[in-house]
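Show me a record, fold above all:
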Amino acid sequence: MRSNRGRGKAAITAGAQAARDAASVAPTAKPGAKANGNKPNIPEFDAEESLAELRTLAGSAGAEVVGEILQRRDRYDPATLVGAGKLEEIAGAAASVNADVLLFDHDLSPSQQRNIEKIVQRRVIDRTQLILDIFARHARTREGQLQVELAQLQYMLPRLAGHGIEMSQLGGGIGTRGPGETKLETDRRKIARRVRHVEQQIENVRRIRAQQRQRRESAPVATVALVGYTNAGKSTLFNALTNAAVLSSPKMFATLDPTLRAVTLPSKRKVLLSDTVGFIRNLPHTLVSAFRATLEEVQRASLILHVSDASSRLSAEQDAPVEIVLKELEAEKKPRLRVMNKVDLLDVEVAETLMIDALHDEASTVYVSAVEGTGLNKLLTRIDAMIEEDRVSRVRLRIPQDQGKLLALLEAKARILSRAYKEGTVELEVEAPASVVRRVRNWVIG
């Protein structure tokens, strides 16, 4: 990979084209293959699909891919992941295109990373570090930056050996070399101190969030959390439902910082919609832990909208990592509505059939196009039916016409089904949330 465009792509043809025809680094499990122990069945991407996703991740990190090499082995090489001969081939291909960095679509142990770098004489990044780099690039708020920094520090700590010069800059002046300490011990101490400091700051964020949540929960307003695979269109759907201007981008992990906006349902109840970070297969555990403060919105939500890309043939495979993270957050049993997004990218006849079926389907799946606005009314209606907070009921009222404030309240926050004027009063039949019914209970009749 290199950032200098043009030259690299032309050179890869001569330098590493043959390597592209090799097989995958490891045997790929078939979809539905059983996992060991108590782990759920996790469908796997095949080698080409996995590389395509890595290519997209690299683009989100601002890099240009100039070559791809695959290898099939019965087992990983404990020292270098790939075989010695294949590693020499990789080194030659990288030299031929003057690549700046090598990306491995697999997690590397600290020793594997060091061994590979010695042979290829280039910087080596594994899948986890690439994802961390993308998160660091996209974090905008102080909270997001803290969470990314914590994950990066936890990733770097076991990789200090052999990187003393680089690590010496991480402490930012925190800690000094003690008598008899080696450089490596000093660097570890600096990072450990920084980790504790960042964890304390994140805990402060969690405390503030808890206070804000308590104030929100004092009013009968439910929270609906959007979750899904990265680039499933969550932010585009969020914008379509709330008229917000959250960044929506084809790049992976464009949204890191949580956003809350109010949405008015057909019953005129309001809910808070929360946009969250996208998930991905093999999401680094350090990221799940670091972003727990952000993902608390998912844990406390009344309803989870699981957004999937209906146009992707990998939709089922992409859903599996979402289920894993929800289970880790202990949110897998929460009420959930499946939202199949991007139906505008499907064949027209297929999309129309799905939309027609959805009109008669009361199951927990809705087909939408956030870009074109298709199916959004159906989605809001299904959300309305599934929200338990501030339940809607039908009542008949007789209100004096001089009660202008109450009549205005009903106009704004209730669905008026019928209205008749009799002897200075207004008789109405309305569907209204419990919080509104309580305010007009003195005028309920029949």
